[in-house]
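Hi V.,

You were right to ask for the full record rather than a summary. Here it is.
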Amino acid sequence: MKWWQKTIVYELYPKSFLDTEGQGTGTIRGIIEKLDYLESLGIGAVWMTPVCLSPMVDNGYDIADYCQIDPSYGTMEDMEELFAQAEKHHIRIVMDLVFNHTSDQNPWFIESSSSKDNPKSSWYIWRDAKDGREPTNWRGIFGGSAWTWCEKRQQYYLHTFAAGQPDLNWADPDVRKALYDAANFWIDKGAGGFRIDAITYIRKPDVFEDGKPDGEDGMISVHDMTANTPGILEYLHEFKENVTEGKDVFTVGEANGVSAAELPEWVGENGVFDMLFEFSHINLEFKGIETWCRPRPWTVSDLKAALRSSQNMTKDNGWVPVFFENHDKPRCPDHFFPKGCSRNKAAKAIGMILETMRGTPFVYQGQELGYGNVAWPSIDCYNDISSHGQYAFALSEGLSETEALACVHRFSRDSARTPMQWDDSANAGFTSGTPWLPVHEDYRSDNVKTQSDDPDSVLHWYMKLAEIRKTYSDLTDSAYDEMLEEDSCILAYRRGRMRIFVNLSDQPCTYDGNLEDNGKTVLCSYPSHTKGELQPLEAILLEVL
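Predicted structure:
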């Protein structure tokens, strides 16, 4: 097995991790200061969301220069020191490649937008107006038209996300070479791998045409018109050949729109990536693109089926990242569990699955503390560009301001981006200045210092799980064999000699105790366990001797 199949990855949101300058936003030096903490969680790789030069229209996912550090985070020297210090802690740094689009402040786009006959004219996707309007009726992911008019070129440019994030034209070989050069720049610096952002959008259809409107605005989501266009894998195989093949790095792609059935084409022996974030178990509320005001009901059985599909499709060839949170998603206790249930128990239940299922666990910043969502009183309190777009769309669909805000409370990306809570001092020890986002109101009781002193805390649970993964090789090496497939509350599975039972409901449940195989309790979220019974949200790990 490769090193990245045995380790735990921590997704770190640098802007919210630790501020060493009193500026209100996190710094690279803040990450260096907390490497001991990350090592205590058993972390072997840290995926950082982008720290490259950016005007921050989308918090760094709009890159103005792939090979420069944004001054708000520090310097290239700071970054080089992070690589060096992380290695001393047996941690590799994983960079976030934003290759579907750049910032509109990127010199490439500035040149491309200057005229139709400049050397980079075809580096982005330009189209003439159609009957005096946008070329198609596509709606951007963040709301509004996916097209913006450029006065200099007298043409529209395409942006899957915000207007400040113009899409690159991967059909131009010069674009692809420039991107490969940027990735190799970071490998030369010491990067241990890459997470590749929004990769399913890089290949556009040969013909751009209107789609059937899916909302009152007369538009259709750009996702439905461009995601996972046939031929995309040709580009990605070329990326693999030019960047990662033969090197000791791993790749994990963000692939909204790729189903579990398609995983063998993307990962495994002949795949383009080592792992793939597919979102069937995360986006249970949505079919296709996320529309926050149109969530669908789902059940524990739906969640189990989604997890099962990914496991089954990669059991013989391929590998999965096991994850339940990231910088774009709600916090687990408020996402997967009934309202009002114990946040401590809910966080432990997800943590058990995260670190014992076959695959590489990806812990998101703050997940190890059991964070919940924020519910701020006004849309004006939210920084997230997506939240504002979804709120406006909900209003256009006829929802009241209260109803639209409730959707934001449930799904806003800001819930995952509030500052890390280190202690109970002002601003949770994150900054001596004014934090760019408000600290969660529970920071005095839920922080690293407080939980470090509480043996029953979520933080101690994650530390124990990390130690257990090192002790019991079956949790990294063995196959995944699900039990109780038809049970509507319990997720249960075997990993070699290990038996895992998790009650995902807030009600007591029973099952055939013989499935425990007289296993010995290794870890349980309750003080004691009764064979064949699970208390609400109980999670137990057993070893068969």
